[in-house]
């Protein structure tokens, strides 16, 4: 797999933001899971979401 491997839709349906417990939106352009409520974008590496707040990128809301 590569860093830009698509995320399994079933996995996305059960994942929630570790900070807010709210929904995540998959951003294919950046290969990240975005929590709009928390203002964080979690990277996906080799098809595996990295759900650690310390690894997330801050986004402007």
From TrEMBL:
GO cellular component: cytosol
Source organism superkingdom: Bacteria
Coiled-coil features, chain-numbered ranges: none
Transmembrane feature ranges: none
InterPro entries: Trm112-like
Family: Belongs to the UPF0434 family.
The protein, known as: UPF0434 protein J2D77_04845
